[in-house]
Structures are given as C-alpha cells and as structure tokens.
C-alpha cells in the first residue's frame, strides 16, 4: 500500500491548521491541512513497517500515523496538541471522535516546558533575522506571539484555545511590520514571564494520562486486527 493511500483510505481525523484555524487568515493565506491515519494492524506484522507520517497527497497536507501522533502529543508537542483543538475539522470517524475525546489526557504542566522551549528556538531565529537583515520575518513573529499567549492561557485555565480572538488585529499589525521589533520582542518576554507565573498555580496535572491514551491505542489496534 502506498503511503498516500493510507491517508486517502484510513484517515480518522483531519483538520485545517495555520492562519485559517488561528483566525488570522488574510487574502492569499494558504490552507494547511493536518491529519491522523490509522495504519491497519496487519501492516505492522511485516518487516517493513508503515510510515510514521506522510506528506500529501494534497498540497500543504501532512498526516501522522495514530501511534506517532499520540507519542508526540504525550510529549506536549505544540504543533500536535494544537491540531487536536482546530475549530476547522474536515474529516472524522468514530475513532477520530474518540481521539478528540482524549484531548484532556494529553494536557499537563509539561506543556510549559515544551511550548517555551519551542518559542525560545523560534525567537532566536527571529533575532538572527534582525541581525542579518534588519528586521524579522514578521509573519513568524505574529505566530510566535499567538503561541505564547495560547500557552499562558492554557496554563491559567487548563484549556487550549488556538484562535487569536480579540488579539487578531494586534497580531495582524505585527504581521504587517507596523510595530518596532523592540516592542514585539518585549511583548514576547512579557508573555514568557506570564506563562512562568501561571505555571505555579495551573489547574493542569503534572503529567499527561499516558495509561488512558495507551489503552485507547491498544483497543484501536486490536479492533483493526479483528476486522482485517
């Protein structure tokens, strides 16, 4: 079976991500699609295992095999966790709905470390742009501000909301380069500090519910084997 066929025939959940999911789309924005496919269990009985992820078959489309997706989500990978909270779901079946019902099992205080580390790496890239070219990639700066605000609010409330909401216009002003870099950089620093403060009294548990996720994965693999 071709990797693209796994996506076409075995996707359990797919959604739109990027600017459209964040409420930051403008004319000409791309449509980024992300998804999860369930490779039939018998494929794992071969020497050559099914892929952990597939690019395509459509443009700007990327999908993870369910086990890999769950692994990354349990590690609090920001991109994967946000995928579970997209408001723009395009395709879902019963297994996908069960996956979405587990969203809370993936969330824990570990998001503080992973989100902030990811943001720090992106911030260094922006700073390198400023040194080399005199300005950052403003679109990337906009998305980094949104991510940091989302992390802070997640730590405060225990709920992950990826839409920019009331911050939309301010963020789009950043994308257009209408604010000086020093001001944008200072805002990033404040958001990091606010996330640090929120982590101290967050309602999130210390660790994700790995046992609950593993039970779901085992049950899903078993069902796939029985229906092969």
CATH uppermost class of the largest domain: Alpha Beta
Helix and strand content put the structural class at alpha+beta
Number of helices: 11
Strand order of the largest sheet: 3-4-2-1-5
In angstroms, what separates the terminal alpha carbons? Answer: 14 Å
Structural Rg: 19 Å
Could you state the order of secondary-structure elements as H and E? Answer: HEHEEEHHEHHHHHHH
User: How many beta-strand runs?
Assistant: 5
Can you characterise this structure?
This protein is α+β, with helices and mostly antiparallel strands and 228 residues long. The protein has 2 domains: 3-103, Beta Polymerase, domain 2, CATH 3.30.460; 110-199, no CATH class. The protein is built from 11 helices and 5 strands, in the order H-E-H-E-E-E-H-H-E-H-H-H-H-H-H-H. The protein is globular, with a radius of gyration of 19 Å. The mean pLDDT is 95.
Short description:
With 228 residues, the protein is an alpha+beta fold. 56% of the residues lie in helices and 11% in strands.
Furnish the topology, listing elements before pairings.
Layout (H helix, E strand, L loop, with lengths): L2 H8 E7 L1 H4 L9 E6 L15 E3 L5 E5 H9 L3 H6 L5 E4 L1 H8 L1 H4 L3 H24 L4 H20 L10 H8 L5 H19 L10 H17 L2
Parallel strand pairs: 2-4
Antiparallel strand pairs: 1-2, 1-5, 3-4
Helix pairs in contact: 7-8, 7-10, 8-9, 8-10
